[in-house]
């Protein structure tokens, strides 16, 4: 089954051209099916790129999905046009006031990892989002900084600054092959990493409510399950396009910032060559497994989401 997207959303055309099944809201309304309602709280500067990345992954699942875009209420996007934001996004305040419930919610990262969580301008509202998920969202997926922020809020799990940026494609170990979220995963997984901070396994070990599912000997924990809050935290970037690391590298080189060539990304580590995507299949597996787990466990009546859960 397809993902439901507004016909004017850029992702509608892009995903259609890629062969992903997409459906307009009007056509979806004609089907006698309750779609899974999946929200994307988009904290990234390049909103459209991020929309495409996540819609591509969840849209490949065999279920009908209603994909809804959310933004922080008082934070204005500087990199995406106001017309786009007005046409396709609701503020969290609007979502909250409407009492909207979601089967799944993705909270993206944001390029603000150098700041203490409490110094982020929208931190107070974001903590309200985290608390709201416990009564209005069946399963939440926090990505990179978004995952770190959730883990800090719910568990006091600290993030630590790195002396050098973790940047490239790193081998990760599958630590929980029996996990429903890792069905079909290989024993080791290549995952794009791009961050100046880390969470440490030694800190996770002191918090028995958290369970590490995927980790790297080089870059530490990658995917952590927080069953008590019905959440997953992924600190790396399965969703990245083939050229996302290249774009980040070229940007920093062009601006004169010190940056190393991303590890294990370009053939023979030569940035003049075209990078090869070696994580796409596991990206689809991870998000497909997440959607399937939601489908298996979410209440049929959306009004029951959050009731008696946790």
UniProtKB/TrEMBL annotation:
Gene Ontology, cellular component aspect: cytoplasm
Site label Important for acyl-CoA specificity, positions: 113
Record bears the keyword Metal-binding: no
Catalytic activity: L-homoserine + acetyl-CoA = O-acetyl-L-homoserine + CoA
Family of the protein in this entry: Belongs to the MetA family.
Function text: Transfers an acetyl group from acetyl-CoA to L-homoserine, forming acetyl-L-homoserine.
Single GO biological process annotation from the record: L-methionine biosynthetic process from homoserine via O-succinyl-L-homoserine and cystathionine
Keywords: Acyltransferase, Amino-acid biosynthesis, Cytoplasm, Methionine biosynthesis, Transferase
Residues the record marks as site: Important for substrate specificity: 194
Active site: 144 (acyl-thioester intermediate), 237 (proton acceptor), 239
Pfam families in UniProt: HTS
Name of protein: Homoserine O-acetyltransferase
Broad class of where this protein is predominantly found: cytoplasm
Residue positions binding substrate: 165, 194, 251
EC number: 2.3.1.31
GO molecular function: homoserine O-acetyltransferase activity; homoserine O-succinyltransferase activity
Organism for this UniProt entry: Paracoccus aminophilus JCM 7686
Enzyme type, top EC level: transferase
Matches recorded under InterPro entries: Class_I_gatase-like, HST_MetA, MetA_family
Metabolic or biological pathway, per its Swiss-Prot or TrEMBL entry: Amino-acid biosynthesis; L-methionine biosynthesis via de novo pathway; O-acetyl-L-homoserine from L-homoserine: step 1/1
Compartments reported by the entry: Cytoplasm
């Amino acid at each position: 089954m397809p993902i439901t997207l507004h016909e004017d959303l850029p992702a509608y055309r892009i995903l259609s051209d890629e062969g992903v099944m997409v459906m307009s809201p009007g056509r979806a309304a004609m089907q006698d099916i309750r779609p899974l309602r999946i929200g994307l709280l988009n904290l990234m500067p390049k909103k459209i790129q991020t929309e495409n990345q996540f819609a591509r992954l969840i849209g490949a699942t065999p279920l009908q999905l209603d994909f809804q875009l959310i933004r922080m209420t008082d934070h204005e996007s500087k990199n995406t046009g106001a017309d786009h934001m007005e046409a396709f996004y609701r503020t969290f305040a609007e979502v909250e006031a409407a009492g909207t419930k979601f089967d799944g919610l993705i909270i993206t990262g944001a390029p603000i990892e150098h700041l203490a969580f409490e110094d982020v301008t929208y931190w107070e509202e974001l903590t309200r989002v985290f608390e709201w998920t416990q009564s209005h969202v069946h399963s939440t997926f926090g990505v990179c900084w978004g995952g770190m922020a959730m883990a800090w809020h719910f568990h006091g799990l600290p993030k630590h600054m790195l002396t050098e940026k973790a940047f490239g494609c790193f081998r990760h170990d599958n630590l929980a092959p029996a996990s429903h979220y890792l069905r079909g995963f290989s024993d080791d997984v290549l995952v794009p990493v791009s961050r100046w901070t880390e969470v440490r396994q030694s800190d996770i070990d002191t918090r028995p409510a958290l369970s590490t599912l995927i980790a790297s000997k080089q870059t530490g924990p990658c995917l952590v399950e927080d069953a008590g809050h019905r959440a997953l935290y992924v600190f790396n970037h399965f969703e990245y396009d083939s050229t996302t690391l290249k774009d980040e590298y070229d940007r920093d080189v062009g601006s004169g910032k010190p940056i190393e060539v991303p590890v294990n990304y370009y053939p023979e580590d030569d940035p003049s060559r075209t990078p090869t995507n070696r994580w796409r299949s596991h990206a689809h597996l991870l998000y497909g497994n997440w959607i399937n787990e939601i489908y298996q466990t979410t209440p049929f009546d959306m009004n029951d989401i959050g009731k008696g859960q946790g």
